[in-house]
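Q: A reviewer asked whether we had any structural model of the full assembly, not just the individual parts. We don't, so I'm hoping you can provide one. Inputs are below.
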Amino acid sequence: EVQLVESGGDLVQPGRSLRLSCAASGFTFDDYAMHWVRQAPGKGLEWVSGINWNSGTIGYADSVKGRFTISRDNAKNSLYLQMNSLRVEDTALYYCAKAAKGYYYFYIDVWGKGTTVTVSS
Amino acid sequence: QSALTQPASVSGSPGQSITISCTGTSSDIGGYKYVSWYQQHPGKAPKLMIYDVSERPSGVSDRFSGSKSGNTASLTISGLQAEDEADYYCSSFTSSSTWVFGGGTKLTVL
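A: Here is a predicted structure for the entire assembly that you could use as a starting point for your response.
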């Protein structure tokens, strides 16, 4: 069974940093692209970032470009999101998600349960 | 990267059909076949319902169908059932090599 388990969410002050992790299992991790998608409380889904199977191509939403960095460790079956200069508007449930194939222009077919990030003073 | 435009809410009675529209631009929906739809029940993670405009994953009921015309994609649910009540989101790949979601549509089964 494909499983994605996010961790690292926390309450942090504006301007601080946080690193999210996603542990993947049940599939050949290095065959697939991965995404981070967030959902602010009571709001819709917002795509944050995507990374190809070999980290060769990476994309970011304008709202996080220059502040967030996505990365993956295929040897550890893990996806990461380094979040710097956090803002109140980054408060959300962050989902780790698997793409259907190795490039992140393919649709998301599996979602984790999410980890909560709260940015507040 | 403006969000795709969806109606905030739609409703229908059991057994009826409803259609949710999703309007973008030639830089996203109109330019690619990479349009997908997700269902989200309260407190749950989204679930893939339609991919590549009109393809249905295995295990998803054939009551769900997707289509596209120009810059607008649509999700149709036929034979509405109580368990279809949820939020629905469209998404599309864009010419900026990013993904964009719609604002979401709340489906109420009357």
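A: Points you may want to mention in the reply: Residues 32 and 102 of chain A are 4 Å apart (CA to CA). The interface with chain B takes residues 35, 37, 44-47, 50, 57, 59-63, 95, 100, 104-114 of chain A (CB under 8 Å).
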